[in-house]
Amino acid sequence: MSRRAIAYLMLLAAGLAAPFFIYPVLVMKVLCFALFACAFNLLLGYTGLLSFGHAAFFGAAAYVAGHAIKVWGLPTELGLLAGTIAAGALGWAVGSLAIRRTGIYFAMVTLALAQMIYFFFLEASFTGGEDGLQGVPRGALLGFIDLSNDLNLYYFVLAIFVFAFWLIYRTIHSPFGQILKAIRENEPRAISLGYDVAKYKLLAFVLSAALAGLAGATKMLVFKFATLTDAHWHLSGEVVLMTILGGMGTVFGPLVGSSVIVVLQNELADKVGSLVTVIMGSIFVICVLLFRRGIVGEIIAFYKRMLGQKA
Amino acid sequence: MKRKLLNIAIAAALIPAAGNVMAQAKAVKLSDNMVKIGVLTDMSGVYSDLGGQGSVTAAQMAVEDYIAQAKPKFKIEVVYADHQNKADVGSNKVREWYDTQGVDMVTDVLNSGVAIAVAKVTQEKNRIMINTGAASTRLTNEDCTPNTVHYVYDTYALANGPGKAVTKAGGDTWFFLTADYAFGASLEKDTSDAVKANGGKVLGSVRHPLNASDFSSFLLQAQASKAKVVGLANAGGDTVNSIKAANEFGLTKSQRLVGLLTTIVDIHALGLPTTQGMMFTEGFYWNLNDETRAWSRKFFTKHKKMPSMLHAGTYSAVTTYLKAVQAAGTDDAATVMKKMRDTPVSDFFAKNGKLREDGRMVHDMYLVEVKKPAESKEPWDYYHIKAVIPGNDAYQPMALSRCPLVKK
Amino acid sequence: MTEIFGIPIQALMGQLMLGLVSGSFYAMLSLGLAVIFGMLNIINFAHGALYMMGAFLAWMGLEYLGIGYWPSLALAPLAVGVFGVVIERSMLQWLYKLDHLYGLLLTFGLALVIEGLFTNMYGVSGQPYTIPEELSGAFNLGFMFLPKYRAWVIVASLAVCFLTWFVIEKTRLGAYLRAATENPKLTQAFGINVPLMVMLTYGFGAALAGFAGVLAAPAIQVSSLMGSNLIIVVFAVVVIGGMGSILGSILTGLGLGVIEGLTKVFYPEASSTVVFIIMAIVLMIRPAGLFGKEK
Q: Chain A within 8 Å of B82 (Cβ-Cβ)?
């Protein structure tokens, strides 16, 4: 068994054991945001596209899944699926517009479109405006596993996370993922090699949006509500922060980054009061100036130096 | 001599009774030998002036005063957290408080989105939320729970009061500036209903997007309507900027502005020159009588600002809760809730406050008019009280309740 | 009375005027973004925060030091400009060799820090700033009642925009600047201090934002969050204009202000989204923006 496989197994074991040591709802929240950050990393880290509007997909899926389960009475699994598909479709619409520009323009276009989507959620009646869509029942998995039990739900969320993580891992290491990396490294070259760059970018965007949606829908299920903060641009900024802090373009970076941020937010809630934004902003600045590789990226670089390789 | 004997006899008869009271005080049965109160509020965002640190201070004051006066035999502790206006952060924190820290009651909980989420958690874990911060009537209607108390105000009371009173006083044509989402729409509807019921007319309304920084265009439309009254069905920064623009465009010279969710925080931020003549409803005003002044001055020495209705309400709510725990002899949610329902609230904040079945704490509200700068005698002296709206008129009648707990 | 689509023409003229006022702010802010972008290749996410700082400095000057509106109009932008220079020297300059995205991220973090600090100090309900005596009151234009202050905003911002355009397009300094934008290495070789120009450019862009902030202070409540909502709209304006030319960003800013103003009359609910819708349409037809050149 390779060393890498052992590492994965150990992580999985930690995930299985976590709810017995740490407050399970908090771990679920971390997992949801980790999935969100992983989906985002697929775009930023592996395709080189900085989207500043990913919260729109996260929030859209949360609303759609919540509405489907609460109002239409769909079973939990189908509700999550509906949310994911809706986010993917929205991702297609936003993506086809945004990939017409690159770099900084791309970031601004996604931000502006996400803001438009935010206004839609604010005004649409099914979202409940600023009160939010509340009291969504968690339901039962396959009709018989009661998800209102936190522990049952935890393993369901963990399963979703592991599945999505595996999917992202497979994507990165597939030929498709290689082409994405080629686009990131040198777009004109990828074009000259005959790849339809726009198509690949759009596909990556849709996949990333759909998985971000899955994260949003799952988070909705954990907390039983969807509110406007799920679609606000602050969250779009936060997911960027999580990815960069952890290390973009690394497999585990987003997981580490989101754990740090979520736990920090939770812990700071009763300690520093109004300085939360300042602390988040400072982490951002420090990361960009000093740790551009992020936590995981720095560790990998250190490890490689130890082995005498040049990073 | 006989008389003296009698006195002794009475005293002797009373001693056991007094002893009983003492025994009762001792016998409060608590789940963890402690009453823990959580203040969940917005410490950093858009509502932090309205609640925020001031609510924490008020809750702490309430606990200190209660300990000094009642000398309870149980320990009381206050914890607080910043929900950052995120429903997930708020409900997660409260869940953790209930699960791991033995918190018995949460208060403040402003921001309707957070409040409804917290109400659900509170019901699930069977504790109590005495909400002093959120505005939405959903807390006592669709989303009511047996564990929720809505203590200070709600959108119905804020909208209905001026709608009725201003219309009756001759302001019978209205135009609305409405924030374009559910909350603004419900403010507008509740006010319109009151206006129409009292013989007034609504000439029109304009829906503006949330956080529109420039309101001049909407105000020109309000001006063109020639309505006597312009109702601001919006909140926070939107209200502040509408008032500012109204002033600049000379609207306040010919029309009266009525805020439907305006508080002393907004008036303080804008200053009297800009806001003079505005009318709106408040749940509390510090300069009402000697009792409110005494408490508010004490609050001022700690917080350096006069209390908003949320701050005063939080103090009152915590005190009411502690008294109910003492009287009920337990911190069991259902028993304490019943005690609170049975005991009218009477303190500096609310006279004859009554907790209804749907969780609404009904108490008198005040229709206020903002003073002219010359009339203000000291800092924070901002209002003329135009009318006291009796609680039963101010709040949504039980007959209209959409709360499933209310038996009809 | 003549009417267009059921709206009296006089009311329409009034709304056009007001559109021009908000357009003036868009123009100044997008101009600042364009100038910074041209030289540093950085999208300044902190622009909204700098705008807020300008307004706050004016308020603080009046509150603590008794500095009136007119001196503030010069002093506050100057202070914001100096602050911009400090940011450029201490942080931004290390990022030029990297992907431009890092500049965006850094300034985003800075925006959070600046806004958080002001929130922490002054709360969020904001501070009132009264209109200076000389500009209170209003002009009666026949078709509308235009507050003098709003008229002043249009005049002042057009003057500043024109001045900026003139300096960059018509003076020697501007020529150096354009040369440094086009080819920094060659310009450096001609003995022009390019890093200095870069530093001053960022400072100037920041000062423009600060100036817009001071102009806005009497018109809207001075609050720590006043910039963060505006900046997204300005980003959309910049995408529509395509930061190719100075004149382009000024025209786009004014034009979109007017369009937004008209939307407020015909379909007020959409007035905050109309800019984004136009952005989507422009992206479909001319991806580089109205005045942009495809690089």
A: yes
With a CB cutoff of 8 Å and minimum separation 6, the contacts of A151 are A19, A24
> B32-46, C1-15, C62-76, C135-149: lowest mean pLDDT where?
C1-15
Report the neighbours of C using a cutoff of 3 or more CB pairs below 8 angstroms: A, B
Mean pLDDT of chain A: 88
The amino acid at B379: P
Residues A29-61, buried b or exposed e (16+ Cβ, 10 A)? bbbbbbbbbbbbbbbbbbbbbbbbbbbbbbbbb
Residue B321's nearest CA partner among B145, B157, B151 is: B151
The predicted complex's ipTM stands at 0.84
- Evaluate if residue B383 carries a pLDDT over 90: yes
Domain count, chain C: 1
From CA A79, how far away is CA A65, in angstroms rounded? 5
- The average pLDDT across B215-241 equals 87
Paired sense of beta strands B105-108 and B34-41, if any: parallel
Using CA atoms, how far apart are residues A135 and A112, in angstroms rounded to an integer?
30
Structural domain including C18 reads: 12-285
The percentage of residues in chain C with a pLDDT greater than 90, rounded to a whole number, is 33
CB atoms within 10 A of CB B208: 27
pLDDT per residue as tens digits for the range C259-289: 988 888 888 778 878 888 898 888 888 888 8
Q: Searching chain C, which residue's CA lies closest to the CA of residue A106?
A: C239
CA pair distance A215, A28, nearest whole angstrom:
11
Instruction: Choose between B317 and C189: higher pLDDT.
Output: B317
Interface test with C, best of A44, A106, A108, A282 (most C CBs within 10 A): A108
CATH of the domain at C118: 1.10.3470
pLDDT at residue C58 greater than cutoff 90: yes
In a domain, C3, yes or no: no
The amino acid that residue C76 corresponds to is A
SS3 C190: coil
Q: Cβ–Cβ of A122/B181 closer than 8 Å?
A: yes
A227 has pLDDT over 80: yes
Q: Is residue C7 part of a domain?
A: no
Tell me, what's the pLDDT at C97? 81
CB contact set of A242 (below 8 Å; sequence gap of 6+):
A33, A36, A37, A40, A254, A257, A258, A260, A261
**Within a 10 A sphere around the Cβ of B168, how many other Cβ atoms?**
15
C170-207 burial, b at 16+ Cβ within 10 Å, e below that, comes to: eeeebebbebbbeebeebeeeeeebeebbbbbbbbbbb
Q: Which of B281, B279, B160, B179 is nearest to B230 (CA)?
A: B279
- The tens digit of pLDDT for each residue in C244-255 reads 678 888 999 999
C132-145: per-residue pLDDT in tens? Answer: 888 887 787 766 67
Whether residue A148 has pLDDT greater than 90: no
**Residue scoring higher pLDDT (B231 or C131):** B231
* Nearest CA distance, B51 vs chain C (angstrom): 11
User: Beta strands B354-355 and B361-362: pairing type?
Assistant: antiparallel
Does C219 contact chain B (CB < 8 Å)? Answer: yes
Give the Cα separation of C13 and C31 in Å (integer).
26
For residue A24 the two structure tokens come to 């399970």
Give the pair of three-digit tokens for residue A114. Answer: 């996400």
Chains sharing 3 or more CB pairs under 8 A with chain A = B, C
Q: Name the residue with tokens 């720095």.
A: A298
Average pLDDT over residues B323-338: 92
Nearest beta carbon to residue B82 from set A25, A228, A276: A276
Residue A82: its H or E element = helix A76-98
**Residues for chain C: how many in total?**
295
CA distance A190 to B335: 71
Is residue C4 included in any domain, yes or no? no
Q: Indicate whether C79 belongs to any domain.
A: yes
